[in-house]
Write a structure and sequence with these properties.
The protein has about 325 residues and is mostly helical. It has one domain. The protein contains 13 helices and no strands. It has helices spanning about 1-50, 55-75, 80-85, 90-115, 120-140, 145-165, 170-185, 195-220, 230-235, 235-255, 255-265, 265-275, 285-310.
Length: about 325
C-alpha cells in the first residue's frame, strides 16, 4: 500500500515535468514559426519600399529597431546587461564587427529585392547553413561527416551552375550566405543574450544611420517626409526588423537545435515562392537545376537532424 502510494506520488512530478517540457516545446515552436513566417513574407514589405534607396531603408531599419528592442529589454528587466556591455571594450569591439556584418546582410537584401533579384536572396539563405558548416571546418577545424561533405559539394556544384549560366558568380546569394554565417559565427563570442546583443548592435549602428537620415533630409534627397505613406512605411521598418528576430530568440531557447535546423528552411521557401508567383521573377532551367541541387544538399544535411528529432520525441 505504501509502495503504490509512493509510486503515484513519484509519478505526478514526472508527469508535470513532461507536460511542462511539452508546453515549452510548443511555445518555442510557435515563436520560431512566427519568426520564420515573418521573415518569409518580409519581401512583400521590402517591395513596398522599393521606391526608396536601399541605404535609406537600411538606416530606418536600424533607427526604429532601437525603441522596439529597448522596450523588450526593459520588459524583461535586462537593461543592466547593456550597461555592463557598454563598459567592456572587448564586448563593444565584437559587437561592432557583428553589427557591420548584419548591416551588410540587410543592405544587400533590401537592394536585391528592390531590383528584382529576390530569388537570389532565397538561394543565399538556403546556402547559409552549408556555408556555416564549411566555416566551422575551415576556421575551427571541425570534422565533417559524410552527409555534410556531400551537402557542401552539391552546394558548390549549384553555385557553379549559376555562375556558368549568368557568366559570373551569384554574388547576391554568396554575400548574404557568407555575411550571415560570419555574423552567426562571431555572434557566439558576445557574452550577452540574443535580445541584448541585437539592441547593442543597432545602438552601435544608430549614429551613422541617423547621420545619413539627417544628411538626406538636409539635401532634399530623403523620403521620410515625402508623404504620410512613406512615414508609415519607414517607421514600420523597425518592428519588421526587430520583432521576428526577438521571436526567434525566444523560440531558439525553448527548442532543440535540430528542430531549429529543420525549421530554418521555412523562410527561404516562402521567399522563393513570393519571388516567382507574386513578383514574377524568372525561374529558368539553370535555377531549377541549382535549386534542385541545393534542396538535395539540404536533405542530406538535415537527414541526421530529422532522425534526432524523432528519437528524442
Amino acid at each position: 500500500m505504501h509502495e503504490s502510494t509512493g509510486a503515484v506520488r513519484a509519478a505526478v512530478p514526472a508527469r508535470q515535468v513532461a507536460t511542462g517540457d511539452e508546453g515549452a516545446a510548443t511555445r518555442g515552436f510557435l515563436f520560431a514559426l512566427a519568426a520564420y513566417g515573418l521573415w518569409g513574407f518580409l519581401p512583400l514589405y521590402m517591395k513596398a519600399v522599393a521606391h526608396i534607396p536601399a541605404v535609406e531603408v537600411l538606416a530606418h531599419r536600424i533607427i526604429w529597431s532601437v525603441p522596439v528592442a529597448g522596450v523588450v529589454l526593459f520588459a524583461l528587466g535586462r537593461t543592466a546587461d547593456i550597461r555592463a556591455a557598454l563598459r567592456s571594450p572587448r564586448t563593444l569591439g565584437m559587437a561592432t564587427l557583428t553589427a557591420a556584418l548584419i548591416s551588410i546582410n540587410w543592405g544587400v537584401y533590401v537592394w536585391a529585392i528592390a531590383v528584382g533579384r529576390t530569388v537570389e536572396t532565397a538561394l543565399g539563405y538556403y546556402i547559409n547553413p552549408l556555408v556555416t558548416v564549411a566555416l566551422g571546418a575551415a576556421l575551427l577545424g571541425e570534422r565533417l561527416d559524410g552527409y555534410q561533405i556531400a551537402a557542401v559539394g552539391l552546394a558548390v556544384i549549384a553555385v557553379l551552375v549559376l555562375t556558368l549560366d549568368a557568366g559570373g558568380l551569384p554574388w547576391v546569394s554568396l554575400v548574404l550566405a557568407f555575411s550571415f554565417a560570419g555574423y552567426g559565427y562571431l555572434r557566439k563570442t558576445l557574452p550577452i543574450g540574443p535580445s541584448q546583443g541585437f539592441f547593442l548592435e543597432v545602438l552601435i549602428l544608430t549614429p551613422p544611420a541617423l547621420a545619413y537620415v539627417v544628411w538626406a533630409a538636409a539635401t532634399g534627397t530623403g523620403h521620410f517626409f515625402d508623404s504620410f505613406g512613406n512615414v508609415a512605411l519607414l517607421l514600420f521598418a523597425g518592428p519588421a526588423t526587430a520583432v521576428p528576430l526577438i521571436l526567434y530568440g525566444f523560440g531558439a531557447k525553448l527548442l532543440r537545435i535540430s528542430t531549429i535546423g529543420i525549421m530554418q528552411y521555412i523562410a527561404p521557401t516562402l521567399i522563393a515562392a513570393i519571388a516567382v508567383f507574386v513578383f514574377g521573377e524568372p525561374f529558368g532551367w539553370a535555377r531549377i537545376v541549382a535549386f534542385a541541387l541545393i534542396w538535395s544538399a539540404l536533405a542530406l544535411y538535415t537527414w541526421p537532424m530529422f532522425f534526432s528529432c524523432r528519437s528524442e520525441a
